[in-house]
Every structure is written in structure tokens, then in C-alpha cells.
Protein: LacI family transcriptional regulator
Amino acid sequence: MGLVNIKTIAKALNISPATVSRALNNSHEIKKETRERVLAYAEKHHYRPNTFAKNLKTGRTNLIGVVIPFLSSPFFLDFVDEMYRQVLPRSYTLLPFQTQNCETQEKEALEFLLHQNVAGIIISPAHETSNTELMTHIHHHSCPIILFDRIHHGLNTYKIGIHNSMETYKATEELIKKGRTKIALLCGKDIGNTKDRIRGYKNALHNYAIPVREEYIIYADYQDPCEDIDSDLRKIFHGFREQGHLPDAVVGATDTLSIKILGVLASLELHVPHDVAVIGFTNTNVSNYLNPPLSTIRQPTHEMAKLALELLLKLIDSKNDRRNIPYQNFLLASTTTFRASTDI
Structure:
């Protein structure tokens, strides 16, 4: 077959070129079955649009910016990987940036994307108030922005996350039902979803009449998941043991902390789960191969990426003033898997 274009796809599928064009651009005017037929045919025959001509016509590029705190985090890496798979058949190109939880780096990334005339931006903010004014200006006057994961931010737009409070409640409750009452919570400092996870943790303790010990809510301040925070955690848990207040269970509220705590406890010659049971939020694919295998709360990164792109393309195609759209929050279900680290 020669060069595949909109006209050849239309002829092969016996539909109009206009319908093919709308399907390739994910227009809401096209039925789902028709869109899937067009996308499948386009992918099978390696269709690539004339992006230069499209950009001249629409005044926008086929670039989508993705701004995340860390590329080294299993959660964010998994999200970006799925985004690549989702945009490929739609002929968009991703421009990923990491901010390392730094508002200044986030601002630089947003300004760069703005100068590249991106079609839209998907972002997990550095913190709850980071660059609110800039993001609002971009969203209203330049291109749409979608928030994911860290959704407690002032920007009024579509937001995609999970039931952080509920998931942490269930993890804490499971440890309580296994007889553990001295439960610590490891949190990332100044991270947007921390407040909800602390609330779920505290609610579980309250509902089982277990006093909340503030010293058991441990904030780890790090700018990169690869940063060596092990010594700080080791010092904290060594202190608990010396004072006779060693927690008998730990809930890890971030990817990094959920994994690192296993090594920290091992270095202190504490046995998991006999001495300290561990469960944590993480999307790592090696949970089964850790020592011991780690009980995890896995966030639905693939579903989040698909929905984020779907909502972004909807806003890109919309003619409505983005200041007047009735936006929604989407809270997706996570998957909890219990392994040896909580097998008490």
C-alpha cells in the first residue's frame, strides 16, 4: 500500500474524510465504534498525519506537555509510559518535565511549554499552591491543563486522583485487625496528597479507639526519590527502639518511603513482619521480589493516563470558554495486594 492519508482511510472504511479527521482527533461527535475502527486502521497501516499542515490550519502544535515531580518514581514513570502509548495512535508527541518538587523548576517547565505552543498540559503540581496564577493564566488564555495525582490545587479544571483517605484508612485498619496498634505513617513533606492520607490514618485509629501519637507521623523531606534519606529514617527508628516505643507496623505513604523502609528496618536487624509489619503506596513492579515481598496499594496509573488524555483532548477540541466549564474531580479505585510484609 502507498502513502496512507485521510482520503485513503475514508475510502477503505467507506466513510467520509471529514469523519476520519474527526475520529483521528478524538471528536465527541463521532461514535465510539467508528473512532475505534479508524484508529485501528490507522495504526495497522502506519498512518502519520501531515502535522505541519495541521499546525498551520489550527494554529497549534501536536505537542502535549507532561509535568511531574520525579521521573525516577515508579508511579510517575508508569504514568508517563502509558501516556506515550496513548498518544502514539493519535499522533501527538509528549514533552515530559520533572520538577523535583521545586516550584521554580515547575515555573520554568510551564513557561517553556507555553513558548513551544503546546496543545495542552497534564501536571502533578509540586505542591498545593505552586504557580497557581501562572497555571490559571495558561489554562484560560493559552492551552488547557489537567491535574492528576496531586489534585488539591487552586486551578479550576478536571482533576484525576484516587481516594487517598479511604485507601490509607483501609491499610491502617487491616494492620489493626492483625493486632497491631503502634502504627507509624511515613509521609513525604509538603506533598499534595499527604493531608488526605494522614486523615485516613487518623480516622482508622480513632474508630478503633487507638490514641494518635504525633511522633508516629514521620515526615521525610526529600527532593528526589534517589536521595539518600535512609540514614534519617534509621536514626528515627533507632530512637524509637531505644526509648521502648518502636512501632509494630508502618504505612508508607509514598513510593520511595514504602520501598526504603524495608532496607532501613533490615539494617536495624528488625524482622518484617514479626517485629514491624509494612504496607505502602507504590507502583513498583518488583514488590514480589523484595525481602520480604511488600504489601502494596497500587494506584491505577494506566486508567489515570487514559482519562487524563481523553479529558485534555476534549478541552482542546472544545470551543467553550474554559473559565465557564463545570469541571469534575475523578477519584479512581486503587488495588491493594497483601504479601509477606503483613503476613502476621
In short: Residues 75 and 283 are 5 Å apart (CA to CA).
